[in-house]
């Protein structure tokens, strides 16, 4: 039946690869949001509790007066520096999430069987994505490294270290490294999907030629 043929598509190699792409895009979105973090800022109110109070012991209780105000300023400036690149990464991750979902839907509806040229279009789009991922990753990592090498980050790191706080180093953290690795994996998945699209195009073309030969 038609419904059965549609469900069978989800068991093909191309569909499995596309579902992996969806998972990678979701993880890129999550890592990008973690990279952005929150506006943060020095609270100066240990009585409020909260995550910083329990994580760093006293909600920045080591700061007072001018140091507290400076910590707040540096937190906000550092957050604003990272915000554009984090938003851009999340936007790219969102686009990478939408595309495989659309391609899966097209496959389930069996559009490639009725319009085989779609597989060539799909192959071309995947190649463009794979090639475009390389400069996107370079821009992402280069921008983050520039932020971590900025005077704002260096001063912020020194200020927190002077009070005995850790975790404010000017270097890539786990979520940002993970986002870069996930981007590389996504690029490889796109190339694999491009190859599978070409293979399926040949298969569909051969199957459509059989009735003519008979």
Automatic annotation (TrEMBL):
Main location: membrane
Recorded name of the encoding gene: Marveld3_0
Domain MARVEL: 9-202
Full protein name: MALD3 protein
Keywords from the UniProt entry: Membrane, Transmembrane, Transmembrane helix
Topology term for the membrane: Multi-pass membrane protein
InterPro entries: Marvel, MARVEL_domain_protein_3
Localization per Swiss-Prot or TrEMBL: Membrane
Keyword ATP-binding in annotation: no
GO cellular component: membrane
Transmembrane segments: 20-42, 88-111, 118-141, 177-198
Organism: Cisticola juncidis
